[in-house]
């Protein structure tokens, strides 16, 4: 039986994971890309970072986004959450603070879930920036929906 998740259950799934699929529109076409993220429960927001490119250009043009996160064990045992929200970028000290929050948050989740100690962001994220800060962003969560099946 498929059950609808309440807000607290959706937040638990976001909080306990760090890989999701970001959906956005660019040039009238939908795109879905995997991202590493951190869910800041106090702000009810997702924090991530990226280089300048297709994704950031698209998100600057249309700030409405969705993030899908799923825990799938089998066809009969899964949970899935869809977070709808608005994209915004940080700059200056706010970018540094949020990149640090992202890094520490993801490292803590990996330590808890996978029993691996991570020291540097490059150990769990493929982006390495040699010049300045990357584009640090937030998705302010406006709506959460979720489903689960446990059979």
Topology overview:
Layout: E1 2-4, H1 7-15, E2 19-26, E3 29-36, E4 38-40, E5 45-50, H2 54-61, E6 64-74, E7 77-90, H3 92-114, E8 135-150
Antiparallel strand pairs: 1-8, 2-3, 2-6, 4-5, 5-8, 6-7, 7-8
InterPro entries: Pyridox_Oxase-rel, Split_barrel_FMN-bd
Organism: Gaetbulibacter aestuarii
Protein name: Pyridoxamine 5'-phosphate oxidase family protein
Summed up, what is this model?
This is Pyridoxamine 5'-phosphate oxidase family protein. This protein is α+β, with helices and mostly antiparallel strands.
- Topology order in helix (H) and strand (E) letters: EHEEEEHEEHE
Q: Termini distance?
A: 7 Å
As residue ranges, the low-confidence spans are none
**Helix/sheet category:** alpha+beta
**Helical run tally:** 3
Radius of gyration: 16 Å
Q: Give the CA-based shape.
A: globular
Helix content: 25-40%
Mean pLDDT, to the nearest integer, reads: 91
- Our estimate of the beta-strand percent is over 45%
* Major sheet: 8 strands, antiparallel
Number of strands: 8
Protein name: Pyridoxamine 5'-phosphate oxidase family protein
Q: Would you write up a description of this structure?
A:
With 151 residues, this protein is of the alpha+beta class. It is 26% helix and 46% strand. Strands 1, 2, 3, 4, 5, 6, 7 and 8 form an 8-stranded antiparallel beta sheet that branches. The longest helix is centred in the C-terminal third of the chain and has 23 residues. The N and C termini lie close together (7 Å). The mean pLDDT is 91. This is Pyridoxamine 5'-phosphate oxidase family protein. InterPro entries: Pyridox_Oxase-rel (IPR024747), Split_barrel_FMN-bd (IPR012349).
